[in-house]
C-alpha cells in the first residue's frame, strides 16, 4: 500500500475560485488593519473580522469538497484507507 501523499490537482475553475476568494480576504485584512490604525469604533472592526472569518470558512468548505472528490477518492482507489482517518481529523479541527 502506497501512503505517499500527492499534491492536489484542483480543476482550473476551483483553483481560480480559491485564489479569488483569498485575494478578497487579503483585502479585508488590509482594511481591518486600516480600521484599527484609524481607531475606528470597535464594533465595526468586529463585524469586519467576522466577515473575514466567514470568507475563510467558505474557502475551507470549497477546498474540503474538492479534497474529498479528488484527493481522497484517488488515495482510496490506490488502497490507502488511512486517508479516512486523516479526513476525519481535519473535519474535527475545522469544525471546532
Automatic annotation (TrEMBL):
Record's keyword terms, sorted: DNA-binding
Residue ranges that the Swiss-Prot or TrEMBL entry lists as coiled coil: none
Gene3D superfamilies associated with the record: Metal-sensitive repressor, helix protomer
Superkingdom per UniProt: Bacteria
Biological-process GO terms, alphabetical: negative regulation of DNA-templated transcription
First and last residue of the signal peptide: none
GO molecular function: DNA binding; metal ion binding
PANTHER family noted in UniProt: COPPER-SENSING TRANSCRIPTIONAL REPRESSOR RICR (PTHR33677:SF3), TRANSCRIPTIONAL REPRESSOR FRMR-RELATED (PTHR33677)
Protein's name in the database: DNA-binding transcriptional regulator, FrmR family
Organism: Tindallia californiensis
